[in-house]
Amino acid sequence: MSAIGSKDRRDRIVRLATTTGLASVDELSQLFGVTASTIRRDLAKLTSDGRLARTYGGAMALSAHPEASLRQRTGEAFEAKQAIARWAAEQVRPGETLLLDAGSTVGALAHELRTAKDIMVATTGLTTLQALSDVETIHVECLGGTLRPLSQGFVGPLTEAALERMTFDRVFLGTDGISPRHGICEADLRQTRLKELMARRADQVYVLAHAAKLGRRPFHAWTALPEDWTLVTDDAADPHILEELRAQGVTTVVTEPERDPTG
User: Fold this and answer.
1) What residues make up the domain containing 187?
2) Whole-model pTM above 0.85?
3) Residues 61 and 18: beta-carbon distance below 8 Å
4) Radius of gyration over every alpha carbon of the chain, rounded to an integer in angstroms
5) Rounded-to-integer distance, Cα 84 and Cα 136, Å
6) Are 26 and 181 in contact (CB under 8 A)?
7) Is residue 35 assigned to a domain?
8) Last residue of a domain, one of 61, 81, 106
9) Backbone phi, psi, residue 101, to 5°
């Protein structure tokens, strides 16, 4: 039996769906220690009250994680993103060919690369183009296509066609969420297909994601990654999620952001 009443349980279900973007009947049943039929009645009540939207096998918040714009995301977890970007930049060697995704953390990496020499950078992101457009020691290729204003990144068949003509030493991907079970999450299926293709074209695959992205499932479009990819995150990351990823063969790198001691 559940230790909380039905009203409190339903309130918690709404908060959980808002946090993760999706709540399944099986997960909720285990979490609250009640039967699946009890959870289904809860979801039916919450749906009729206009607090959730039903999905196959569960429910999602009506306003579950509308996609934030790149401008909105740039200031989030700023110190963590900088630490992740610094570590990633340190892995790059002269003569390498890199593929950079769109996004704020990968954009931070592009800024760190401004002092690099004798590298080629191909990108789907306007942040990288803006960061490196005036650096004469770096050769930059833009993988054009359809521009998504929210992410400031290119997607679509033209981008995919350009990818098919190139290979890379390293690819650096961003993400909206990471699940040990599903991979990395994005708002748009075009994004997840493109990230999957990007991962296939590189010898080494890195996902740059600050701690809040781990375990987060705000959307329903996923990219499955090769077994030997590397997650680069920060020291606030959930150790249980890190351990689950390591058990799957994922290399995890935990960086330490520079924090204001008076903050």
Assistant:
1) 70-255
2) no
3) yes
4) 20
5) 25
6) no
7) yes
8) 61
9) -75, 175
- Tell me the pLDDT tens digit for each residue of 217-251: 777 788 889 889 999 999 999 999 999 999 999 99
Structure tokens at 220: 């329903």
Looking at this protein, which amino acid is placed at residue 246? R
Extract the tokens encoding 114: 């401004």
Domain co-membership, 201 together with 92? yes
State which amino acid sits at residue 144. G
Is there a domain that residue 230 lies in?
yes
Supply 18's token pair. 């808002």
Find the farthest-apart pair of alpha carbons in the chain and give their distance in angstroms, rounded: 67
In this structure, the answer to whether residues 47 and 125 fall within a common structural domain is: no
Out of 26-30, 74-78, 249-253, the most confident range is 249-253
What is the separation of C-alpha 210 from the centre of its chain, rounded to a whole number of angstroms?
9
Query: If you count them, how many residues does the chain have?
Result: 263
As a whole number of angstroms, the distance between CA 184 and CA 56 comes to 21
Tokens in use for 74?
A: 């740039």
